[in-house]
Amino acid sequence: MTVDMDEFWVFGYGSLMWNPGFVFEEKLTARAFGFRRSLCVHSWVHRGTEQRPGLVLGLDRGGSCIGTAFRVERGQKANVIDYLRERELVTHVYKERTVPVSLADGRRVPALAYVIDRDHVQYAGALSTSEAAGIVAVSTGKSGPNSEYVFNTLTHLKEMGIRDHWLEEVVALLRQTRLRAQA
């Protein structure tokens, strides 16, 4: 398949998949190789505080990540980039990158993505599922409990037919923690 090099694609791996916030012409499931979805970003505002940071998703090195690619009309490229920079680069914990993605229809296209900056102070590193669940269970920010964010994320991924075994294990541990707290 030929690829129009003038096409502009955006790759989403978290809330961008179900809440892009911009107009697009095409939406396809896509896979980014060399990156994985991870709860690796300390949230100091929306899902935690600086004193008790929560965790939100980042696109970290290693493995592959199934997400969503959006093709944006050429004339909207600048507006979409401006919007995404305002949304994703608030604390500059992410780096704006163009990454190759494989679309569900077999095409490989370059896509704009926001990748975790491993040198940023908010980078949590590679956490075990139990470490992640422990942080998420006790963190709350201005957008609510961190656990709501994680449960909501997994629900949306399942609705889209995307399995994330690591995140599923984090949710299972969170549910066990809730059951123990209720007992």
Task: Give an overview of the whole structure.
It is a single chain. The chain is α+β, with helices and mostly antiparallel strands and 183 residues long. It has a domain at 8-126: Roll (Hypothetical upf0131 protein ytfp). It is built from 4 helices and 7 strands, in the order βββαββαββαα. It has a 5-stranded antiparallel beta sheet. β4 and β5 (108-116) form a beta hairpin. α2 packs across α4. The mean pLDDT is 93.
Secondary structure blueprint with pairings:
Blueprint: E1 8-12, E2 26-43, E3 54-72, H1 77-88, E4 94-103, E5 108-116, H2 129-138, E6 140-141, E7 144-145, H3 146-159, H4 165-182
Antiparallel strand pairs: 1-3, 2-3, 2-4, 4-5, 6-7
Helix pairs in contact: 2-4, 3-4
Keywords:
Hypothetical upf0131 protein ytfp, 4 helices, two-stranded antiparallel sheet, 183 residues, 30% helix, 7 strands
Q: How far apart are the first and last residues' alpha carbons, in Å?
A: 57 Å
Count of DSSP strands: 7
Low-confidence stretches: none
What is the residue-mean pLDDT, rounded to a whole number? 93
The rounded Rg comes to: 17 Å
User: How can the largest sheet be summarized?
Assistant: 5 strands, antiparallel
Globally, the shape reads globular
Number of helical segments with 4 or more residues? 4
CATH architecture of one domain: Roll
Strand content: 35-45%
